[in-house]
Design goal:
This protein is α/β, with parallel strands linked by helices. The protein has 14 helices and ten strands. The protein has a four-stranded parallel beta sheet with strand order 2-1-9-10, with helices on both faces. A four-stranded antiparallel beta sheet has the order 4-5-3-6. It has a two-stranded antiparallel sheet with strand order 7-8. β7 and β8 form a beta hairpin. The longest helix has 20 residues.
């Protein structure tokens, strides 16, 4: 085994009871949920275990719940003595990666993403912004269409470069509708509306980013123990002064996930470990590069298996 990257999922992977089997077995995982409840001033743990899913899916709840679950699973995995050479996260998952790298404390991270979720929900009234996944079309062709529609006064842009053949667009409801029509005309196989509450990673989120500046000033960022790859510009950094500015830009900028995975492979990574709820990133990485090893730690059994495989690969 050459080098290992820990990667962390973003919003959309949430599910009722996620991480609770891990918390029941590993005291270090249980303590993460306790810290979250204490820092947020309400029982996030109860919301995760009991729902309802509609409440858990709200950004201000989903974001801290997903980061808590990722870090709880990370702590359980680290109890076996395994470590990463690099870390990265998809959108929200970048905060989990920052905790894994030692740039942010977990307590500060869970507070930040709760506020981030609130600000993102407030930025655009519910129902006025949308997102959609575009399948079977090259990025350049999608960019040409979104630029044309936006120039006509209806905002739409690329929000996620997820994998070859899967790009997400984000914008106003009218921008997505006109973009969808033109993309199909130009040869997109499918354009699938996403069940999200706002136009994330678009210019419409700039008010949230501006408000988030003062929230970020409330916390301390430290030098990273391992490099983290930024969603915004695919740069490798351990410098906290770089991180702060990128987290603000990340709110309204595209997530360059395909480029991130390619950069990590170029840096010598041959094993990716997805840590957190679900296996969304594992599926995307498989589409980006079929030659790498992809592991997923999301429950008690898979944590043990991943730890064994990483130790065998040393």
């Amino acid at each position: 085994m050459n080098k290992v990257a820990f990667v962390f999922p973003g919003q959309g992977s949430q599910q009722i009871d996620m991480g609770q089997d891990v918390a029941a077995k590993y005291p270090e995982a249980k303590s993460i949920y306790n810290i979250a409840d204490q820092r947020l001033g309400f029982s996030l743990t109860q919301l995760i275990t009991e729902g309802p899913i509609e409440e858990l899916t709200k950004s201000e709840n989903a974001q801290p719940a997903l980061v808590s679950t990722s870090i709880a699973i990370l702590k359980a995995l680290e109890s076996y003595g395994v470590k990463a050479d690099y870390v990265a996260g998809h959108s929200l998952g970048e905060y989990s990666a920052l905790v894994a790298a030692g740039v942010l404390t977990f307590s500060d991270a869970v507070y930040l993403v709760h506020r981030r979720g609130e600000l993102m929900e407030e930025a655009v009234p519910n129902g006025t912004g949308e997102m959609a996944a575009v399948l079977g079309m090259e990025a350049d062709a999608i960019e040409a269409v979104t630029s044309e529609v936006s120039a006509g006064g209806d905002t739409v842009q690329i929000a996620n470069y997820n994998s070859p053949g899967q790009i997400v667009i984000s914008g106003t409801a009218s921008g997505i509708a006109k973009g969808t029509e033109k993309l199909k005309e130009k040869g997109a196989k499918r354009v699938i509306p996403l069940a999200v509450s706002g136009p994330f990673h678009s210019k419409l989120m700039k008010p949230a980013a501006e408000a988030f500046v003062s929230v970020l000033e409330e916390v301390t960022l430290k030098d990273g123990a391992v490099p983290i790859v930024s969603n915004v510009d695919v740069s490798f950094t351990t410098d906290p002064s770089n991180v702060r500015e990128k987290l603000i830009r990340q709110i309204y900028s595209p997530v360059k996930w395909e480029q991130t995975i390619t950069a990590l492979v170029d840096a010598g990574v041959d094993t990716f470990v997805e840590i957190g709820a679900g296996k969304v990133l594992s599926g995307l990485i498989k589409k980006i590069n079929r030659d790498v090893t992809i592991l997923s730690a999301n429950d008690v059994e898979s944590i043990k298996q991943v730890a064994e495989q990483l130790k065998e690969g040393k």
